[in-house]
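Hi L.,

You mentioned the student needs an example of a multi-chain input paired with its predicted structure. This one should do, with 453 residues in total across all chains.
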Amino acid sequence: MKRQIPLALCFLFGIVMIITQFSPHPVSKSIYERVISGALIIGPFALVLATITLIQTHINRIQRRTEHWGYSFVVFAGLITMVAIGVPFGPENPIFVWLYRNVQVPMDATMFSLLAFFIASAAYRAFRARSTEATLLLVTALIVMLGNVPVGDLIWNSLLSLTGLDSIISQNGPSSARGWILDNPNLSARRGIILGVSLGVISQSIRIILGIERSYLGGGD
Amino acid sequence: MDLIGIWVAAFLTLCIYSFLYRDNPLYRFAEHLFVGISVGYGIVLSIHQGFLPLAWKPFWEAITFKDPSGLWVIIPIAFGLLFFARLSPKHTWLIRYPIAVLIGYGSGIAIPNVLRANIFEQTRGTLQPFGKMTETIAANGDTIPALSTFEIFGAILMVIGVICTLTYFFFSVEHRGPIKGLSKVGIAFLMIGFGSAFGNTVMGRVALLIQRVDFLMFDWIASFGTIFNSIF
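Structure written out for the whole complex:
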């Protein structure tokens, strides 16, 4: 009851999803669409549970007066405001849209842009060309960065015209080199990784469906 | 309203950038507000774009006898409600049911799709250029020109890169002799791949930084003039 039924459910839903994708029969298509809708219905419940866990964590912080406990009220303020406006009036409500545009989007962009500063220190460590591999990484990253911005081509073209080599060497070198790197050696490495990961995903999925891999059931009986 | 929005966004932007000096109450305020707002936004979207149209609407139409076929949604709703068994220590094990359904569903949907999109398509993309070495005639009668020498070089490099990268991740044989050589070439390709990813990530983050600075300089500072004009 506690372990066998979940294993059977996992097997059933796994097999159904595989078979229905290969069969063009209307019944098979209908089952496939129903199962997809069913999974989309189950998903939001997990989000609600996650939110309850977040609320419990912050209530515990407030009760125990842990460090910076006062900020837990800020979390609640943000959460309650969005839910109180968005759930009854919908995501198209002007106040909800205003909060999204002027609070969430700017903070999201700023949080990610903050990484530009920290990535600079990471780049310093990564860009110390101490081995052939590190040099390759350094050179590729520099070419891709220069090729990404118009100033890269501008510097290249200016240097060519200054040295008089513009009749021999083609213009817009950094952007062309970037394009070639992304489309050839970079893509081949990505394809190698994708093929390896995909084989791993398939073998792991088969193990899960057949009940060999059971770690998702957790401990206990 | 727009002016207030600009000032709120500018205040929160500056709060987050204050972290560059050191951790401080303003940053912590913005950080916690971001968590609350983001979670709230996620809940609203999942309710209005997931639960209401997919579960509540068919369920309501079924119980009001408008469309009884929608009654099947009771099954996924029941499975979803089992997630809350996690809150009762005695019945925690019931959470395995919805998890098993989602895991089984995810695994089942992954096998054919990953096989098709990530294995067949990627292999086809790697080998396809070799079919264009000479001039060919398409099904509609158009002439497809042969690849240039440079493109042929790229196609050969692609195959070498894929094989060498896969060899690097192949641990069933010891990396000695020719396998070690192939694996070393695989590392070189991986480094080029990581370098490209790093370069693109840096540029993406810098683009975001430019966008935020642009907002502060041209939207926020420009709003000072609007306020000044409205007062005087």
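You could point out the following to them. Chain A touches chain B through 123 residues (CB under 8 Å). The mean pLDDT of chain A is 90.

Best wishes,
N.
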